[in-house]
Amino acid sequence: MLLIRFRNASKAHSINIKYTSAIVLKRDIIPTYTPQNLLLLKTFYSTKNVKIEESDNLSRDIRVRFAPSPTGKLHLGGLRTALYNYLFARKNKGKFVLRIEDTDKDDLAYKCFCSSSTLEEIRNKALKEGKIPVYDKRCSMLNKDKINSLENEGKPYTIRLKCPSDTNIINDRVYGTIKMGASQQDDAVLIKSDGTPTYHMAHPVDDHLMKITHIFRGEEWLPSTPKHLAIYRGLGWEPPIYVHLPLLFNTNKTKLSKRTGDVDVDSYRNKGYLPEAILNFVAFLGWTPKNNSKEILSLDDLSEMEPPLCRSSL
User: Fold this and answer.
1) Per the count of CB atoms within 10 A, which of 21, 37, 127, 220 is most buried?
2) Beta strand 2-6 with 95-100: parallel, antiparallel or unpaired?
3) What pairs with residue 189 in β-bridges?
4) Matching Gene3D superfamilies, A to Z (predicted)?
5) What is the mean pLDDT of residues 114-125?
6) What is the pLDDT of residues 131-158, one digit of tens each?
7) What is the DSSP string of 111-148?
8) Which H or E run includes 96?
C-alpha cells in the first residue's frame, strides 16, 4: 500500500497504480558514471564493501519515505529515488510513505540575530580567504544579557543547531564510511525568524514520528547528514539507515533539476512514453541486472531482483 501524507493534512490516502504495455524510452538522460555509480550493483545493496553494524536492527518493521519539496514538477532523478524506496518496501513487506515537505512558511541550539547582509559578509569573507563558507558561530558566543537585550529591542532571530566540534562519521550504504571535519559543518538554521521549521528540523522529527527505518535520497544530501544525525542524537532518538543515490545528469553533464529543462515525469508521459518504459529506464540508471532475459520488468520482477533491494544487505 502507498501512503501519502501532506504536512498539515488530517489523513493519509491510498493509491492503486495500474500499468499498461511498454515502449522503449530514448536515453535522453544519462547517469553519472562515477566510481560509486559504476559499482552501484556491488555496493548499493551489498555487504561486501560496507560493514553492517548490529545497531542497524534489521528485525524491525521496514518503513521508508519519499519526501520531495513542492518547488516544481517531479523529474526522473526524483522518480528513481521514489522507485527504489517503493521496491525496497515491497520486497520486505514494509510500508512506503510519500510525504510532501512543505516547509516554506541541553545547549544544542542557539538564537542567531545575524541579518541577511551580515550572513552575506561572512560568506564572502570566507570565500575570499579560500575557506568553506560556513557560519562563523558568532551568535553562539553571545551571553544571556546580550541575548535578552536584543530580544527586548525586537530584533528578529533564527534558531541554529550547534554542530558537534568533533569529526562526524557517516555510515552510508552506498558510499561507506565518510568522515567530515567540524570545519566543514555549518550550524544549520532549525527555526526561521517567523517561527516555521526548516527542512533540517522538520525532516528528522517527521521521520522519527512516522517510524521511518531507511532513507533513500540523492547524494546532494550527504553534506547535510551530520546535521540530521546531530538532531537525532540531541533528541535521544535512534537514527535511520541512510542510502544516498548517485545523481542523474543531463546529456550536457549538468545536474538534473525539476526547475529547469524538459525532464519532469509529466512531460515524458505527455510525449507518449508509457509507465513501464519510464520505470525500467530509471530503475537501471547506474547498474545492470545479471542473468535477466526479460526486456521489460514489472514491479514484482524489480522488487525480487538480487542484490538490489535485498533486505540482508541493508
Assistant:
1) 37
2) parallel
3) 160
4) HUPs
5) 93
6) 888 898 899 999 989 999 999 999 999 9
7) EE---HHHHHHHHHHHHHTT-------GGGG--HHHHH
8) strand 95-100
Which one of the listed residues 91, 95, 227, 258 is annotated catalytic? 258
Identify the residue whose cell numbers are 520505470: 279
125 is catalytic: no
A 10 A CB-CB count for 276 gives 18
pLDDT tens track for 290-303: 777 788 888 888 88
Residue 31: cis peptide before it, omega within 30 degrees of 0: no
| Rounded Cα gap, residues 176 and 219, in angstroms | 12
pTM attached to this predicted model: 0.61
Q: Extract the C-alpha cell encoding 35.
A: 566510481
Give domain 253-313's CATH architecture: Orthogonal Bundle (1.10)
Distances (CA, A) of 177 to 49, 52, 163, 243: 10, 11, 19, 12
For residue 230, what are the contacts with CB-CB under 8 A and spacing of at least 6? 108, 161, 163, 164, 168
> For the stretch 111-123, what's the b/e string if a residue is b when 16 or more beta carbons lie within 10 angstroms of its beta carbon?
bbbbeeeebeebe
- Cell 525480487: give the residue: 304
Return the number of other C-beta atoms located less than 10 Å from residue 234's C-beta.
Answer: 16
CATH 3.40.50.620, domain 109-245, yes or no:
yes
